[in-house]
Design goal:
Chain lengths: ~270, ~325
C-alpha cells in the first residue's frame, strides 16, 4: 500500500491556494484598498463585505488579499537573497576549506544562535524601518542557514566517486561544484527554503505589527493586526482575519518543510 | 576544566565582537544623533555644543574606548528622549519585567512540553501521538502576538479574567504583576511548546531502539520504568541545547508580546527608542539582549557538558 505524504500534499495545496489568493489581490480586489468610507466604519461581516470593514470603513477582504501579496513578496525576495549568497559562500567554503572556512563557520554559528526576529529588530534599529529594509535584513540573516546546509553537503559529496570521475575527465573546480554537486542538493535546499519562508513570514508580520515594517497606507497583515487591536471591543473580526491568514501561510510552509523532511527520510 | 576555559574565552571574544559591532553600527548611522535630538532647524553652534556634550566630536576609537569603559561600569550615558533619565536607570526599571515574563513562559513550556513529548513518543503512531502532532503543527504556526490578541479577546474582554491594559509594577504588587503576566507568558509559550514537544518526541524515539533499552527490558523493567528511568535521561541531553535556542526565542517573543499587552518592559523601550532614534537606549538594549543570548548559550554549553560525560572526552 502506498503511503501518501499528507504533510507535503496539504502544505502544497494550502500554499498554492493562498498564493493564488494573493496574486488575484495584486490585480483585482472587491473594493479599493485605500478608499475610506465613514458610513462603513467597523461594519460587521456581511454579504457585501465578507470579512467586514476596518476602523476607516475599508473592506477587510480586499486589504487582506493585497497584504497577503506583500507577505509573499517579502518572503520570496528574502529567501532568494539568502539562497543565492548562502549557496555561493557555502559551496566555496565547503569545497576549498581552510582558514576562511573556519572564520565563516564561526560567524555563522554566532548568527544562527540568535532568533531571526531578534536579529531583524537589531538590524532595523540600525538601518531604519521600511519594507525593503526588512527584506534586506532578513535576506542577509538567512544566508547562514543556507551556508551551513550547502557546506556540509558539499563536504559530503566532494569525496564521492562521481566527483572524482568528473575531475579525471578534466572538469574545473567551479564546474564540479555548480554542475555536478549542487543539483544533488535540490531537496535539502527546498527544505531550507521552506523553513526560511516560514521565518520570513513570521518576521515580516512581527515587524509590521510593531510598526517597523511595511508602512501605511500599504496594507500588510501584521500592520492590520496592530491597527485592529484598538478595536477588539467593537470589531473583533478586524483582528481575526489578518491573523488567520498569517497562520495559514505559516502553516502551509511548515507542512511543506515537514513533508520534504519525511521524503528525504524514507 | 579546559573545556570550560576554552568556552569562556570564546564567550569573552564574542561579547567583545558584539560590543564593537553595536558601537560602530550606531556610529555610522546616517543622520547625526545630535541633529536628530535638536531637529534640522538647529543652529550649527547648538549642534556642536551638544556633540561635544555627548562626546561625538572625538575620533571613533577614543569614543569606543570611552563607551566600553563606561558600559562595563554599567553607565550607558543619558537617554536623548527621556530627559533626566540615564540609560541605566531606564534599563533597571524595564529589564526585570521582561525577565519575569521570560522565566514564566520558560516554566510553562517545560511543565507542559516534557510530559506531552513523552506521551507522544510512548504512543508513537497511535492516536494520542497523531493528535499531539496535529495540534503542535497548527500551534507552531500561530505568531505569539496574534495569540496574545486572541487571549485578550477571550479572557480579558469576554471572561474578564484579567484587566486589559491593567499592568501593575512588580514593586507595587508582585503577585498582581505575576497575575497580569500569566496570559502574555502563555501567549509566548504556546508556539514554543509545540517546538519542544516535537523535539522531545523525536529525541526519545531515537533513543528507544538502542541496545541499553533492550537490556533494561530484559532485566524485567516495565515500560514506564524504562521510559522514565533510562530513556528520558539520555533523551534530554540533546533537548538541553535545543532549550538554549528556545530561551533566545522566548526573549524575542516577550519583546513582541509586551506591545500586545501594554507591558513596560525592554521590548516596548526598544521599539519606542527605535522610532524616536534614541540611540544610547537602543545601543544599550541591543547590547544587553545579545549579551544575554550569548551568555545563555555559554551556560547551556557547560550544562550540556556536565550532563553528558561523553562530550568531555571527545
Amino acid at each position: 500500500m502506498k503511503k501518501y505524504n499528507y504533510s507535503l500534499i496539504i502544505g502544497l495545496v494550502l500554499t498554492g491556494a493562498l498564493l493564488l489568493f494573493a496574486l488575484i489581490g495584486q490585480f483585482w480586489t472587491p473594493y479599493s484598498i485605500t478608499e475610506t468610507n465613514v458610513a462603513l466604519k467597523n461594519a460587521a461581516p456581511s454579504m457585501a463585505h465578507l470579512m467586514g470593514c476596518d476602523n476607516l470603513g475599508r473592506d477587510i477582504l480586499s486589504r487582506v488579499m493585497n497584504g497577503c501579496g506583500t507577505t509573499f513578496l517579502v518572503a520570496v525576495l528574502t529567501v532568494a537573497i539568502g539562497c543565492v549568497f548562502g549557496v555561493i559562500f557555502g559551496a566555496l567554503t565547503g569545497f576549498y576549506g581552510g582558514r576562511l572556512d573556519r572564520v565563516i563557520m564561526r560567524l555563522n554559528d554566532i548568527l544562527l544562535s540568535f532568533p531571526s526576529v531578534l536579529l531583524v529588530l537589531i538590524f532595523i534599529s540600525v538601518i531604519g524601518k521600511g519594507k525593503y529594509n526588512i527584506v534586506l535584513a532578513l535576506g542577509i540573516l538567512f544566508i547562514p542557514s543556507f551556508v551551513r546546509m550547502v557546506r556540509s553537503e558539499v563536504i559530503r559529496y566532494k569525496e564521492q566517486e562521481f566527483v572524482k570521475s568528473a575531475k579525471v575527465l578534466g572538469a574545473g573546480n567551479l564546474r564540479i561544484i555548480f554542475v555536478h554537486i549542487l543539483p544533488n542538493l535540490t531537496v535539502s535546499m527546498l527544505t531550507t527554503a521552506a523553513i526560511g519562508f516560514n521565518n520570513a513570514v513570521l518576521a515580516e508580520a512581527s515587524m509590521s505589527y510593531l510598526g517597523l515594517g511595511v508602512q501605511p497606507p500599504e496594507p500588510s497583515l501584521g500592520r492590520m493586526l496592530s491597527e485592529a487591536q484598538g478595536y477588539v471591543f467593537n470589531a473583533p473580526w478586524y483582528a481575526i482575519w489578518p491573523g488567520v491568514v498569517i497562520v495559514l501561510i505559516i502553516l502551509g510552509f511548515s507542512l511543506i518543510s515537514e513533508g520534504l523532511r519525511k521524503m528525504t527520510e524514507s | 576544566m579546559k573545556y570550560v576555559l576554552k568556552k569562556f574565552i570564546t564567550l569573552v571574544i564574542t561579547l567583545f565582537v558584539i560590543s564593537v559591532l553595536t558601537f560602530t553600527a550606531f556610529s555610522v548611522i546616517p543622520g547625526d544623533a545630535a541633529m536628530s535630538k535638536l531637529g534640522i532647524d538647529a543652529s550649527p553652534e547648538a549642534i556642536a555644543e551638544l556633540q561635544e556634550q555627548y562626546g561625538l566630536d572625538k575620533p571613533i576609537l577614543e569614543r569606543y574606548a570611552d563607551w566600553a569603559i563606561h558600559a562595563l561600569q554599567g553607565d550607558f550615558g543619558q537617554s536623548f528622549n527621556y530627559t533626566r533619565m540615564t540609560v541605566s536607570d531606564l534599563l533597571a526599571t524595564r529589564l526585570p519585567v521582561t525577565i519575569i515574563l521570560a522565566v514564566m513562559s520558560m516554566l510553562i513550556i517545560i511543565i507542559i512540553s516534557l510530559p506531552l513529548g513523552m506521551l507522544s513518543a510512548k504512543f508513537s503512531g497511535k492516536w494520542p501521538d497523531v493528535a499531539i502532532n496535529t495540534t503542535t503543527q497548527v500551534t507552531m504556526a500561530i505568531p505569539s502576538f496574534f495569540l496574545g490578541i486572541i487571549l485578550t479577546v477571550i479572557f480579558g474582554i469576554g471572561l474578564k479574567w484579567f484587566q486589559v491594559g491593567g499592568y501593575v509594577s512588580p514593586d507595587k504588587d508582585f503577585w498582581g504583576c505575576i497575575g497580569y503576566l500569566i496570559f502574555p507568558a502563555i501567549a509566548v509559550a504556546i508556539p514554543k511548546i509545540a517546538m519542544v514537544v516535537k523535539f522531545v518526541r523525536n529525541s526519545v524515539l531515537s533513543e528507544i531502539n538502542k541496545d541499553y533499552v533492550r537490556t533494561a527490558y530484559s532485566k524485567g523493567n516495565d515500560e514506564n520504568q524504562v521510559l522514565y528511568g533510562h530513556v528520558l535521561r539520555n533523551a534530554l541531553i540533546p533537548v538541553i541545547t535545543f532549550v538554549a535556542m528556545v530561551v533566545a526565542e522566548i526573549l524575542t517573543g516577550s519583546l513582541v508580546i509586551e506591545q500586545v499587552f501594554n507591558i513596560p518592559g525592554m521590548g516596548r523601550l526598544l521599539i519606542t527608542s527605535i522610532s524616536n532614534r534614541d540611540f544610547p537606549v537602543v545601543q544599550a538594549s541591543v547590547l544587553y539582549i545579545t549579551a544575554v543570548v550569548v551568555v545563555i548559550n555559554f551556560i547551556v554549553d557547560i550544562i550540556y557538558q556536565l550532563a553528558d560525560p561523553r562530550i568531555r572526552t571527545s
